[in-house]
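Methods — Computational structure assignment.
A single polypeptide chain was analysed. Its primary sequence is given first, followed by the predicted tertiary structure written as structure tokens.
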Amino acid sequence: METSKKIAQYLLQSKSIKLEPAKPFTWASGWLSPIYCDNRKTLSFPEIRTFIRDSFVEEISKSFNSPDVIAGVATGAIAQGVLVAEKMGIPFVYVRSASKSHGLENLIEGVVEAGQKVVVIEDLISTGGSSLKAVNALREAGCEILGMAAIFSYGFPQAIRNFTDTNCKLITLSNYSVLLEQALESGYISKKEADLLAEWRNDPENWMK
């Protein structure tokens, strides 16, 4: 829990996460959202990116024992995945959202072999759809997926169902509930704003309609 709180503090501090319930953002899906998350910003802060890297290594070692390969989901988790793989001293690959339209038309970049045990790194979990495409691509290549580790998750029920249905274990360094607690405690948001943010997570598709 202390790690989860610290990550939440860092995400707010680095402005990787912005909370603006009075001026909601519009996602590509068309949903109105009081939160915007871009965890790539953490890479610009050495103290923060190192803490995230070390937290990943600790959680992966505890939850998945000894993977043969770390795989990052393009593009947001490529850098994070490289940092983790370097710290653990194991190979790294990354998975594209779609195959290249030229050359070898690779979907997986790097060297991975059938039978290898892989942990997939992701920066953010919303519904889990795009993240699990990477898992399926690696499975089709013959890899054994130990699970996925992500920096942050909104905790949508749909994501939980998707990971359960795909039989993929998911661990996250922090989550939406912890973020709201930290934002409220630090005075980043008011109690009224915290209530609005909690309502959004319960029904994001229809929030503010």
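Note: The longest strand covers residues 144-153.
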